[in-house]
Amino acid sequence: MQKVFALPWQALTRQPAPRQRRRPRQWPWHTLTVLSLIALAYAIWLSTSMIAYEWRWNRIPQYFVYQAEQMQRASEPGHIDSIETLGKTARVTLASDSGSQQVLAVAADSLLLGEGDLVDEGDALGFTRHWTAGPLLWGLWNTLWISVVSGAAGLLIGMFTGLCRLSPNPTLRDLSTVYVEVVRGTPLLVQIFIFYFFIGTVLNLSREFAGVAALALFTGAYVGEIVRAGVQSIAKGQNEAARSLGLSAPQAMRHVILPQAFKRVLPPLAGQFISLVKDTSLVSVIAITELTKSGREAITTSFSTFEIWFCVAALYLLINLPLSQIANRLERRLAQSD
C-alpha cells in the first residue's frame, strides 16, 4: 500500500477544520433584567413608604370610565299617575294638569317621589345612569388627535423646508434656513406663547388651532433638517444617472432620490414623531385639556398623585411603543427591498 506524504509547505498552509461557535447562554442576562426591574419596583415602594404614602388604586378606574347621572325633571305641573318597576329601571308616568302625560325612565333606586305625589314644573323625579369616558380618556383622545394633525402638517412643512434648503434659489434657501434656525434656537414653550397670545390674538385663532400650528411649525423645522440630511446622503451619481436617462430634476428627485432618502430618514423621523407626542403636553399652558393637564386635574380631586402620574406615563407608552414597533418593521421591510 502506497503512503502519501505531505510536502512541508502543504502542511504549513493546511487550515484546521472550523469549529462551531457555541451560542452564549441568554437566560442569565434575562434573569438579570428581571431582577433589575424587581429592584426598581422595590425602590419605588420603599421611597413611598418612607414618606408614608397610602396607595389608592381603587380611585383610578373612575378617571377612565364612570357612570354619569342625568337628572330627570317634570316638564309640567301635575301628579305621578303610576310607577312601573322593570328590574333596575322604573317607568314613571306623570299626568299633567292640562291632561297630557309624560313618561320618564329613571333608575329604580333613585326615585324621589311616589305614586300620587304632586309635582311642579322642574321638580326632580330621579336620574338615569350611563357609562361615559373619564377625564384621562378624554385627555388621551385630545393628545392623539393633536399629535396626528400636527404631525401630518409638520411632515408636509418639513418636506417643503428640506427641499428649499437644497434649492439653487438663494431666496428659498435663505428663508428656509432662517425658519429652521429660529425654530430650533428657541424653546417650544415660548413659541406656543407667542403663537397663541400674539398671532392668535391678531388673527382671532382658537387655542386648539394655535396649539396645533405651533407644534406643526416646531416639528416641521426638525423634519426639514432630517429630509435635507437624508437627500444629501444619497450619492451624486444617482442624480446624474437619472438625468442621463432623460428625467428632469423634479422627476429625478421624486422617483430616484427621495425613495432612497426615505429609507435612511425613517428612524430619525420616527423618533421625531415620538417626541412630538410627548411635546403635546406643553399645549396645556394655553388651557388645552390634553393628557398631562387631565392628569393634573384628576390629582386635585383624587389626591392620588403617584397613581395618576403612573397611569399618565403608561398612556404615553401606549401611544409611543406601537409607533416604535411600526417604524422598526417598516425599516426592516425597506431594508429587504434594497
Describe the structure.
This protein has about 350 residues and is α+β, with helices and mostly antiparallel strands. The chain has two domains: about 70-130, RNA polymerase II/Efflux pump adaptor protein, barrel-sandwich hybrid domain (OB fold (Dihydrolipoamide Acetyltransferase, E2P), Beta Barrel); about 135-335, Orthogonal Bundle (MetI-like fold). Helices cover about 60% and strands about 15% of the residues. The strands form two sheets. A four-stranded antiparallel β-sheet has the order 4-3-2-5, with no helix packed on it. Strands 1-6 form a two-stranded antiparallel ribbon. InterPro entries: AA_ABC_transptr_permease_3TM, ArtM/GltK/GlnP/TcyL/YhdX-like, MetI-like, MetI-like_sf. It is found in: Cell inner membrane; Cell membrane. Pfam families: BPD_transp_1.
Order of neighbouring strands in the sheet with most strands: 4-3-2-5
The share of residues in extended strands comes to 5-15%
Q: Termini separation (Å)?
A: 57 Å
Oligomer: single chain
- Spell out the CATH superfamily of the largest domain: MetI-like
Structural class: alpha+beta
Rg over C-alpha atoms, rounded to the nearest angstrom: 33 Å
Number of strands: 6
Q: Quickly name the level 1 CATH class of the largest domain.
A: Mainly Alpha
Q: How many separate structural domains?
A: 2
Second-tier CATH architecture of the largest domain: Orthogonal Bundle
Question: What is the CATH topology classification name of the largest domain?
Answer: MetI-like fold
What is the count of DSSP helices, taking H or I runs of 4+ residues?
10
Mean pLDDT across every amino acid position? 85
- In helices, the fraction of residues equals 55-70%
What are the segments in which pLDDT stays under 50 over at least 5 consecutive residues?
none
Characterize the biggest β-sheet. 4 strands, antiparallel
